[in-house]
Design brief:
Order of helices and strands: HHEEEEEEEEEEEEEHEEEEEEEEE
Largest sheet: 7 strands, antiparallel
CATH class of the largest domain: Mainly Beta
Strand content: 35-45%
Number of strands: 22
Helix content: under 10%
Radius of gyration: 40 Å
Structural class: mainly beta
Length: about 400
Amino acid sequence: MRKSAILVFLLLLPVSIRAQNPDLVLNPGSSYVDVGRSIPWSNFNRTYVIVPNSPNASLCVYVVNNNPSSSHSFSTSTFQSADSQVADYSNNTGRYNAVPLVNMPGTVPASGMVSGFTQSTAAAKVAIRFTGASGQAGSPDTADVFLVQTTSGTCGAASVSNQVQGTSAPGAAITGNPLLLGGTDPSGLARFLKLCPDSTATACSAANTYSLAIGAGGNQISGIPLTYPNASGALATAMLAGNSTGGAQLQLPMVSTGTANNSAQNPQSLFTSNGGYFVRNSNVAISGNIIQGFFFPGGGQGSFLACSVALQATNTGGTTPTLNVYFQTSWDGLAWTDRISFTQITTSASNQWAAVSGSGFSAAPTVFTDGTLAAGSKVDGMLGAYARLKFVLGGTSPAYTVTDAVNCY
């Protein structure tokens, strides 16, 4: 057979036979690449290798289904090689690395078009591999495949997921593609960080919920209230630490206020050079022996360096009334010892203050005194984890009004 006859024979082969050739290498030199038109879906599965116009070119991959009645399913994967001399992909897979293909659906509807976007870096050749397609009923059961090279990093609708777009009002459904904060959980899995509106919200108690330690308080921080920002204000933030119970709860290292003090929720002195600061003020009518306390958080939260105590007392009744006031501390909340014993108060109004230091002092073994320390004296030395005021009355039907203030640091 003559060579001319052989050439004519090859040119007259059906398209379906020629489409089964190995990888098709394209070197178009143009930004617009016709990969193939009217490709039978039965022969759609193939790898196309393109020589990009730039080593940093982006490719938009388009697939058109010409079948007017049947959709088609297929899979697409993309690879790149830095070797300009590599012949194809299928026989040189070790010289190619996979690169992401964004937004390429797995199904193209009847008479429809789908697209995907891939961006290569330092690529001499880019391979686009189609698999999983098969023929379907309908005529013509063919597809068109074409590419567009771009340097913008976008591909029309195919690149929406790569752009930050739109806004969402608080509590409303997400619209557009706003930027969401995220991170990894202890297992290394990606998570969106969620803000819990309150501790009873279902989403806050669900498994694998990870929240920021800012914003509205929820059970992630044991219900400690934090606030959303005002329209023109900064987002509320707080430093958190594990509490003394050894549990998983996070607590705010905040100043205690006496009446609001709670050892589980208001631990002071965390991340400070001294013991924090404690303030307590009260006004009380006394007609019998009472104890005012406990002060301080206690329970392993540290101790203070010094305390000052001020008293203002007024006698309101009784025969030969007396009032002795003791500032006491304890290491365990059970056994107490006097640290300050104020001058005894009788019928005259009395204003007194005293201070006790727990820094830089040592103490020899000393017996605890509970309401027996000599009036007008004090005992310096390290302060305990707990503190209280003890009021001891004497005489007949004594009554006093006392205002006290305790300041420790």
